[in-house]
Amino acid sequence: MSLSDTTEIHQFACLDDNFGVLIHDRESGTTVAVDVPDAAAYEAVLAETGWKLSHILITHHHWDHVQGLGELKTKTGAVVIGPERSRQKISELDRTVEDGDDVLCGPYEVKAIATPGHTLDQISWYIPSIKVAHTGDTLFALGCGRVFEGDKEMMWASLSHLMHRLPDDTTIYCGHEYTEANAKFAVTIEPGNEALQARAKEIADIRALGKPTLPTTMAAEKATNPFLRAGEASVADALGMAGQPAEAVFAEIRTRKDNA
Ligand SMILES: [Zn+2]
C-alpha cells in the first residue's frame, strides 16, 4: 500500500482565522502537526482521533503559529523541527533546518523549502510522497503573506520558487483562512479571468456555509492567484504595466493589497 493510501489529514480552525493541520499515517502511527496556534484545539483533535503526536513542524516564529507549542510539546513529547533562523526565538526546537534540508518524520520524507519574505525564517514544508505541502504564511489561497521582514523582491522569488518546486497536483495547506477577502481583491486585479470569477463565486458559497476553503492546489493557484500570475502578460496589461518585469508587477499587486 502506498503512503498516500494510509495517510489521513485533518485540518481544523484555530484562534480567529488560523489553521491547525495534522498528517497521520495509519500504518506506522506517525502523526505530524504543522504549527501550533492553539494547543487546546490540537489536544481536542488528538483525543477525538486517538492519534499520538510524534512530530511538530514549524513554518515561522510568529506568535499565532507557535503560541501553543510549549504546551503541546510538553503534553505529547513530540519532536519539534523548525527554521534554523529562529533557533533563538523558538526555545522548543529540537532540530532546525535550512533550505533544501530533508527531515524524516516516520515514513514521511519532508523537504524544507526556504520561502522568506513574510518573515526571514519562513520554511514551506513539502512531502513529495503524498503530494502535500504547507506554505505557512507565504502562499495563501488566492493570496500571499504580507511582507514584514523581507522585501517584495524576496517574496516574489519565494513564490516563484514554490511554483517551480511544487507540481501542479500538489495539495497545499497554509496558515490562514483569508480566501474570501483575497478573492474580492483578486477580481479587481484580473476581472477578465473567468477561472478566477468562477472560483470567487465558489468561495463565497463555501464561506456562507462556514466551511474552510483550504486546502488548495498549485494548479488552482497558478490559474487564479494574482500574486502567482505577476509574470502573465494579461496581468501586466490589466495594471497598465505591459512589458515590465514580473517582480515589478508583483510589487504593485502587493502594494495595492496592502492598501486595499
Ligand atoms: Zn505570520
From TrEMBL:
Pathway(s) where this gene product acts: Secondary metabolite metabolism; methylglyoxal degradation; (R)-lactate from methylglyoxal: step 2/2
Pfam families named in the record: HAGH_C, Lactamase_B
EC number: 3.1.2.6
GO molecular function, one term: hydroxyacylglutathione hydrolase activity
Catalytic activities: an S-(2-hydroxyacyl)glutathione + H2O = a 2-hydroxy carboxylate + glutathione + H(+)
Residues the entry annotates as binding Zn(2+) 1: H60, H62, H118, D137
One BP term from GO: methylglyoxal catabolic process to D-lactate via S-lactoyl-glutathione
Keyword annotations from UniProtKB, A to Z: Hydrolase, Metal-binding, Zinc
Keyword check for Hydrolase: yes
Record domain Metallo-beta-lactamase: where: 17-176
Residues noted as binding Zn(2+) 2 in the record, renumbered to the chain: D64, H65, D137, H176
Sequence intervals crossing the membrane: none
Cofactor(s) this protein requires: Zn(2+)
SUPFAM superfamilies in the cross-refs: Metallo-hydrolase/oxidoreductase
Cytoplasm as UniProt keyword: no
Entry similarity comment: Belongs to the metallo-beta-lactamase superfamily. Glyoxalase II family.
PANTHER family on file: HYDROXYACYLGLUTATHIONE HYDROLASE (PTHR43705), HYDROXYACYLGLUTATHIONE HYDROLASE GLOB (PTHR43705:SF1)
Subunit structure: Monomer.
UniProt function note: Thiolesterase that catalyzes the hydrolysis of S-D-lactoyl-glutathione to form glutathione and D-lactic acid.
Protein name in the entry: Hydroxyacylglutathione hydrolase
